[in-house]
Fold each of these.
Amino acid sequence: MTPTRRPRRLRRDGIRELVSETSVSASDLVVPVFVDATLDERQAIESMPGHERVPVDEAVARVEEVLATGVESVMVFGIPESKDETGSRAWASDGVVQEAVRAITAATDAYVMTDVCLCEYTEHGHCGVLTSEAHEAWEDGAADSDAESLTVRNDETLELLARTAVSHAAAGADMVAPSAMTDGQVGAIRGALDDAGHQDVPILAYAVKYESSFYGPFRDAADGAPAFGDRRHYQMDPANRREALVEAELDVEEGADAVMVKPGLPYLDVVRDVRESVDVPVAAYNVSGEYAMLHAAAEKGWLDLEAVALESLLSMKRAGADLIVTYFAEDVAEAL
Ligand code: PBG
């Protein structure tokens, strides 16, 4: 009964680190930053402990806090001063993201990514131009109308996303990250960036974005919940795995420089599949609900927050992610 192979031999201090296959470092991480044009002082985000919405003139200070932890990259989200039918404040040159990015890039060396979407900017909270059926249902206040099966016009939305991405690049964004799940968005944005002279601005495509209930806290934070219906006809069905490869391959063909899988932890199989099917860098988005649930359990004393946060990120790296967008970035970087 004597085992011939003893994997325990390599688990002792000294050798353990030498044979470790994966690691997380601050340089793998990107922190989401919320800039809110309606505020004149910082406001805590209740469901995301430790995160705040900051006014535009605090954006630089917020990014300096991030840099002080060793994390060098941020993803900027904006909450505009006003919303309208098409989300026109998303591409305004004096919009909240544009102003914040201009200030951040002028004052810091942070690598600045921007989320390119319309849901925080439209009154109806959808990520594009409504169909006429959906528009009617919305005006009638029909929360559960049939229109929710087809809410957003794909092709009319492309032009608006392209304008938004170009306005971010013009403000100095280092990278743009389209998250609207509009078919053809990467190609449309690449073409528009090139035409505007931004050939060197790369695209991180939210290629594989599921219609997930793990986005709840974010939708409070960024005020981007749909006013009616849901996002089922544009975000992916959580049941699907092969479809993720179609999405990732299409985005690479259209010119994505890197592709993202979102959420992260519940979709590690998909991170692995995508890693094996494309040759560009793969990102995972450790989303708001993943952050909130670990915080809630830790608050009850049921989990060790620092340990589970690090283990979560390590698991995403092990699954094949090269970089991770995470609300834990600053805490983990400080602990490392
Ligand atoms: C869309 C966007 C969302 C998130 C990132 N970009 C919300 C959504 O699709 O509903 C969610 C991120 C998170 O939950 O942390 N602008």
Amino acid sequence: MSEPAAMTVAEGIRTAAESLSAFSETARLDAELLMADALGIERSDMLLRAMRDAVPPSFAGLVERRSRHEPVAHILGHQEFFGRRFKVTPDTLIPRGDSEVLVEAALELKPGAACVLDLGTGTGALLLSVIAETGGRGVGTDRSPAALGVAHDNADLLDLEDRVRFHLLDWRQEGWAGELGRFDLILCNPPYVEESAALDPDVRDHEPHGALFAGVDGLDDYRILIPQLRGLMEDGALAILEIGHEQAEAVSTLAQTHEFAVSLRRDLANRPRALILT
Ligand code: GLN
């Protein structure tokens, strides 16, 4: 009796990509990453084996989870950001490609940053990416103990644990800035989504709302943070804030009110994505 012809990895990827393309703009990549996970190998090694190897049994379950809009980063437990792999859980925002522009700006404008502060660090992706390149030290804060656990794990994974400290801190509470000290670079990707925004189900149902939503106009956290930044900055320091692509004007105005000079950086899609405050 002959076995039914098993689907090859290549065919499995193609079939899964077809079904995920109903809603995912990255269906092919999703399917490849899930297949590599099912095989327990890197995606680059997998592509070489795709023509001859059979689909492993766990692949169907992974595609099934993705079909229910669970983000690939949550299924895999990690996400690439600025060339490094970061552990991700549902307790943190998934690092986005758009946020890499903050790291680029930091390395370009402050390549020698010795002391970096990351407010609302989440996975630690911004902070750890910058200090890995500059060789400097850093402090990350978050109001979520679970997120700080993930940031710690990422510092360990990247062998940066000796150069970072993490603090549990909620900037919506009085006196938060007091004991942090001063820094020559501040990074911050605060929550900035309008309360009423209709988010993609992948985001809405799987990522922490506390890291996303910021009041009626999405500006609540900038209103709290911007007036406090000066007290956290050394002479000549700069602060780099991520913004929603329609918030450049509102946040710039707020920063100018507090006597900052402001310049803008755009993301890969050429949308406004970060403001640099000096
Ligand atoms: N860029 C994220 C999104 O649109 C929002 C990130 C944030 O609020 N800091 O899903």
